[in-house]
Amino acid sequence: xxxxxxxxxxxxxxxxxxxxxxxxxxxxxxxxxxxxxxxxxxxxxxxxxxxxxxxxxxxxxxxxxxxxxxxxxxxxxxxxxxxxxxxxxxxxxxxxxxxxxxxxxxxxxxxxxxxxxxxxxxxxxxxxxxxx
Length: 132
Prior knowledge:
This protein has helices at 12-23, 39-58, 61-72, 79-97, 102-109, 116-131, and strands at 2-3, 9-10. By secondary structure, the protein is mainly α.
């Protein structure tokens, strides 16, 4: 039994019938039926995410690393994000070096994985040196 605001008692079946009339028969008493994000919050969350991403993109790679360190702790968590930032930093350093083959050398020095193109270039260079 349920009490209403006016103090009347309503049987459970009658209460459910009232709710079905208010919310619709197929919803099963839920405000938002179905899967996925709530329709009323979808636009709000999308807008907030775009704002966060634009603010993050404005930061330099060093500022991004320091933001991760303050939020999560020194070298803790966000492993993929940290490696992505490290490759950005190494590629920026390689561009500043302006030496032929700088991406390959920079990747070897930092012991990171090479891109396929750079790896093939390195293998060709080794093969040429071996044939000389």
